[in-house]
Amino acid sequence: MSLIVTGTIGIDTLHAPTGSAEGVLGGSCSYFAAAASFLSPVRLVGAVGGDFPAEHAELLASFKGVCLKGLDRRPSSRTFAWGGRYLDDMNRRETLFTELGVLEEAPPKVPAAYHDSQYVFLGNTHPSVQMDLLHQFPHRSLAVCDTMDLWINIARPELLALFKEVDGVVLNDQEAMQLTESRNAITAGRGILDLGPRFVVVKKGEHGAVLIHRDGVATIPAFPADASQVIDPTGAGDTFAGGLMAHVARTGSSDLATVQQGMAWGTVMASFTIEAFGLERLRRLDLHQINERMKLFRTAAKVG
Ligand code: AMP
After folding, report:
1. Number of domains in the chain
2. Residue located nearest, by CA, to atom 19 of ligand 1
3. Residue 102 sits in which domain range?
4. Which residues pair with 94 in a beta bridge?
């Protein structure tokens, strides 16, 4: 079943207590697509500028399941760039700079061959762009979006309009609370349900994730990593979404039980991403390692 992701392709500069990385490949689309590609073919739609390094394009292409027909290259524009710094406990992050570049221009072009996509993930980018892209997939059976603090601050009305049209929203606890002015992740999730979607997944970092829908709530723990394994949490959220959506797409279903199983695959994929800067750990990953970790996770998460 065809899975598509749109969002940012970025050049990241990262600082963490574990070290720094300058000018590495990042962006919501890149992490999502790389992670998803281990479980399902994935179509990528995103724009980059003339400054996008050839080695970053090669890295994206090295993930065999990623189709890059939707990589919109704009020679006279600049690629989205972002800098972030993690504070001592790695749970808190501050943005150092955001250079929107191509994000200030027209949305990326969707190749005609992609219009039949059924599983649509609208990764982090301006909500108007997410909406524009959503409408280009008339055969969708499941549409899910992400968002983050910048868009909640500067494009709230557009975001609320988007929530009315998607099936699901995946976002982190800080963002959910910021959106709803609630101090509890479940209450915040319920507040977002009232805005339109039929389910909300609230990511809580090292405390796992919660699925909230009209008939109940389901929780899933994070993969139990000790501090020495956490090198760079950047992209964990996008990787989680990539694993989740790829699992849902490969089963060809979009019921809540499948979404919940998808959360387990997303958790396992994210547990790899945080082990190195940027996409480095995913670059060295294979399906055998993923399946082995899934077995460990099933044992660790088992109750009763
Ligand atoms: P995550 O750690 O999952 O929240 O995602 C980190 C990625 O999001 C980085 O690789 C950044 O390039 C990208 N990013 C940062 N700010 C934004 C933004 N405002 N919109 C879209 N992507 C962003």
Report:
1. 1
2. 150
3. 3-301
4. 85
